[in-house]
Amino acid sequence: PVANWCIATPTAAPAAVGVAIHQLATGQLAIRPDTANLGAVEGPFSHPNGFAIYLVVVLAFAIAAAMTQRRLFARACVVCLIIAGIVALVLTYTRSAWVGFALILTILCFARFRRLVPVAASVVVIAALALPQTAKEVQQRFGDLGSGQAASSGSSWSWRTMEWQKMLQYGYDKPIFGQGF
């Protein structure tokens, strides 16, 4: 099953990213109340978060494929998928996926593809300059984590920590047998 999924992922990725780009072009965006009512792409998924995690996996495979592909046409197609996938990933407004993608990109840069470092740095600079509104929205999305008014701004971090505090007692009651942590 895992091998079938890995084989199907690169095949299905262009269609999934195409759905997201179509949603963006037609304005059929999912409204996320936790992001100050920003419209997010969700691709063929039912929620932007699931699509974002899917994109992280697809982009990791696609970057590795682009770096190892010898044929120019195939590499150009994969690079187009990477560009569209990164745009879709940013427009999901899913912080955990952004952090995950940054970690994967860093690992790929330093573990195997050192020539990818200047490309990754250039992409960050170009994205910040070319898409200033999106950069501002990304900054706002991360800003609620560290602000002093996070609890009143609908921050997901304050909600999560409150939920974790409520659940800790169950882990302490039966740490080995029963619920555990």
Order of helices and strands: HEEHHHHHH
Helix content: over 70%
Classify the secondary structure makeup into a structural class: mainly alpha
Low-confidence stretches: 1-7, 148-153
| Adjacency order of strands in the biggest sheet | 1-2
Report the sheet-strand fraction. Answer: under 5%
Number of helices: 7
Query: Can you give the mean pLDDT?
Result: 74
Distance between the termini: 29 Å
What's the Cα radius of gyration?
19 Å
Keywords, separated by commas or semicolons:
single chain; 181 residues; mainly alpha; two-stranded antiparallel sheet; 2 strands
Write the layout of secondary structure elements.
Blueprint: H1 2-26, E1 30-32, E2 38-40, H2 48-68, H3 72-90, H4 95-111, H5 116-130, H6 132-146, H7 156-173
Antiparallel strand pairs: 1-2
What would your notes on this structure say?
- The two termini are 29 Å apart.
- The protein has helices at 2-26, 48-68, 72-90, 95-111, 116-130, 132-146, 156-173; strands at residues 30-32, 38-40.
- By secondary structure, the chain is mainly alpha-helical.
Summarize it.
The chain is 72% helix and 3% strand.
